[in-house]
Every structure is written in C-alpha cells, then in structure tokens.
Design brief:
disordered C terminus; zinc; eight-stranded mixed beta sheet; alpha/beta; globular; single chain; six-stranded parallel beta sheet; 14 helices
Length: 416
C-alpha cells in the first residue's frame, strides 16, 4: 500500500532545528523526513483487531512538531520510527476479526491511544481508569514503543491506504454525519477533555489563546458541552476570527489587544520597573492553545488571582518564563492531553462518544468549516508547506484523503 512515512534521522533533526526557520523547504522538500512510499499492508494481530481504510486523516500540530523537529526530546523514548503518521482518522472497517463488534463497511473514528491490552499486558493503573493515552507501559509488551498510533512503527497511522485498529479503539460514526465533522472528533475530544479537567462555573470569564484547530475546538467544546460562559478568543488571522465567532466566541481580539480584553474582564494594569504590564484581576480560566513562550506568558499574566490556566497547546522547552504569577496569584496550572472515560452528568462515557453525541445533537455548529484544505497523499509536500505557513495558505485543519487521488481542494469560509 501507499503511505507517508516519517524517517527519524538525527542529522535531519539538527538541520531542521538550525535552518528550517529560514528555509522551510528543508522540512517539506526532498531533504525532509517524510516520504511517499510503499509500506507493508497491515495484518490483523488477533480476532479483536480490524483493518481500517481511512477516508480522511488530519494533519495535526504534533505531526508538524515531529516533522519540523519542534518537539522536545523528552518525548523521544515513547515513540518508534520509521512510522506512518496520522492519528486523526475517520475511515471504514475493511476487515474485522471475530471479536470486532461491527461489520465490514462500518464507518468509524479511531481513538489512537495504545493501551496495555493492545500490548498483551495486564492494564496499568491509567489504562484501568480508562485513559490509555497516559499508559505507564507504552514501551513494553508485544508492540514497539509508542503511546499513539502513528508514533509506533508497528501500528501505521492514517496517512496510509489502510491501518490497524483494536476493537477498543473504534467508535462508530452516526449515519448522516459528514466525514469533515467526524475527522475532527479527535481534536474536539482533546478540547473537551481539557474543559472537563476543570469545568467552568456558570458565567465564567474565559480566555482562549490561539484560534488554530485546538483553540477553535476548545470554543466549540465549551458550546457543545453546554457551558454558559463569556468566551474571549485571541486570533491572529481574519478567517480564524470569523470561525471563532461562528463556533460560539463572545468576543474575538487580536493578541495585541489582550490587555484591553483583560481590562474589560475586570483587570487593572500596572507598570513594573522593567517589562510588560502586570495585572490584578483578569480571567477566571485561560486556555493556552498555542504553547509558545508568548502565549504561556500571556496566560499567566491574564488569569485572575486564584484562577486556572489549562495547557492545551503542547508546550515544549520554553526558556525565560516568569513564574512569579503562579505563586503570587496562587494560580492553578493544569496539563491536559488526550481523552478517555469521562464522568459527565452522572454517567461514564468515552470522550469520543461524548463528542459524537454532541455533534449529532448540534448540527448547527459548523465545526466542519475548520477543514480548509484536502490533499491526496502524493501531494504531501504542498500539505506540509501549507501547514508551515498558515498565514499565506489560510489553513486551519489540513486533511489527507488516503484513498483518493487527484488535485488538492481548498475551502474558503464565507465572510461573517
């Protein structure tokens, strides 16, 4: 089968880290770490495994982080390469074992978390509580190291014509739901889990920093889960701002206007001897959906005393962060990653199923408009180029169409 394969190479990593900011073609060109090539067809590993044919597979920020060498080396022991990337997947069961409860032809989204069960091991404490994303044995057992499909050499991800999935990873998609909505279940589940980590109080003043896929998914998740809050979004580009409003943002500002937005949320600005303004008061809850030095600095500065900062932006190594605000204001800084069994409304439900239910119940929320670009696998260089320069491309969510050929398509959100 044809697939996009990431080939780990220390020289390529060093070259990308040192020079790709000047010459991004080092990432997406012939010298890059991704190749369109033949890969062995997946073979089910048992009766509770299925072969899935991806229909759409998203290009995630974490994929770009690995390809462009932005990811912290701290994560390197928990992946194995070469591997077929792609962990945001909607596809069709092409072949299922006897213990797969859905027949061939069933449309599904795939939870990419790799559990102890999949590794042939008894469940660790995190897998027992339903969060294999946090599996403590992600380097052990019968599979190569990896906590996600797409970052494990033994389990090809969705950037291929076929992939493997365990029965526990499969979540059927309701009839009538477009693929463009279903492919967003994974990022929406990340956002929903982040929201559920510290559910906002009624009327809370919330700031979402960043209006890429995770930022917009956070706005959508707040509305899909029914939280009554005033949501301010910091967006860099006009298309992001329009989508943020359509997905339920109360107000959208540019990052340069965050100080004014904080003042409107009740903050008072003070000028220190050196540096940027500091505040008393501010937002009850801040979601950092970018993960850069500036976004984290903004998040810590603009959260009120006793407030909460939720890290959704996959921050890595960030130098020179002023942590004064954390202890001086008694902020709570919360990490959020992945998805699993949530306790919501008196029931236990997987985050994916919760999101699928909410999407079906709210067809008016246009989450599918986050999908702006579609590329066949062999046009991957254009896809990576669009992802690396979103200002020029206007891309929000880029998806591959692994079992389709032809030219890429680009959708432009209407003016709002």
């Amino acid at each position: 089968m044809k697939a996009l394969v990431y080939r780990l190479s220390l020289p390529r990593v060093v070259l990308a880290k040192l020079l790709a900011h000047r010459w991004p073609w080092l990432v997406y060109g012939p010298a890059g770490a991704v190749a369109y090539t033949d890969w062995p067809d997946p073979v089910p590993r048992g009766e509770d495994w299925a072969v899935v044919a991806p229909r759409l597979a998203g290009l995630c920020g974490s994929d770009i982080g690995v390809i462009a060498a932005h990811t912290s080396p701290s994560a390197s022991p928990f992946s194995s390469f070469p591997a077929v990337l792609g962990h945001e997947v909607v596809g069709v069961i092409a072949q299922g074992g006897a213990r797969v409860p859905w027949p061939a032809g069933t449309r599904v989204v795939v939870d990419p978390s790799i559990s102890c069960t999949m590794r042939g091991l008894p469940p660790c404490p995190q897998c027992q509580r339903g969060f294999p994303y946090l599996c403590q044995r992600c380097t052990d057992g019968t599979l190569s190291p990896g906590f996600l499909v797409g970052f494990c050499r033994d389990l090809p991800g969705g950037w291929a014509q076929r992939m493997l999935a365990h029965a526990s990873q499969l979540h059927p998609v309701p009839d009538g739901m477009p693929d463009e909505r279903a492919v967003l279940v994974e990022p929406l589940a990340i956002a929903a889990h982040g929201v559920l980590r510290r559910p906002p109080a009624a009327g809370a003043r919330i700031l979402v920093i960043g209006a890429g896929t995770i930022g917009l998914s956070t706005v959508a998740a707040l509305r899909l889960l029914g939280y009554d809050a005033h949501v301010t979004v910091a967006a860099r580009h006009g298309m992001q701002a329009r989508l943020a409003r359509e997905l339920g943002a109360s107000r959208v500002v540019s990052p340069a206007d965050l100080g004014r937005a904080a003042a409107e949320a009740g903050a008072r600005a003070f000028r220190p001897l050196i540096g940027r303004a500091v505040y008393r008061g501010g937002f009850d809850l801040v979601y950092d959906c970018v993960g850069t030095r500036r976004s984290l600095d903004d998040a810590l500065r603009l959260a009120r005393e006793g407030g909460t900062v939720v890290l959704l932006g996959a921050a890595g190594e960030i130098p020179k962060i002023d942590w004064t605000f954390v202890w001086m204001r008694e902020l709570e800084v919360v990490g959020a990653v992945g998805y699993g069994l949530e306790r919501v409304g008196g029931r236990t439900v997987h985050t994916f199923d919760l999101v699928l239910e909410a999407l079906a119940a709210h067809p008016e929320l246009p989450v599918e408009r986050m999908v702006t670009h579609r590329f066949p696998l062999h046009r991957y260089r254009e896809a990576l180029q669009a992802a690396l320069d979103r200002r020029a491309s206007g891309a929000i969510k880029i998806v591959f169409t692994p079992n389709e050929g032809g030219a890429p398509t680009v959708s432009t959100p209407r003016d709002g």
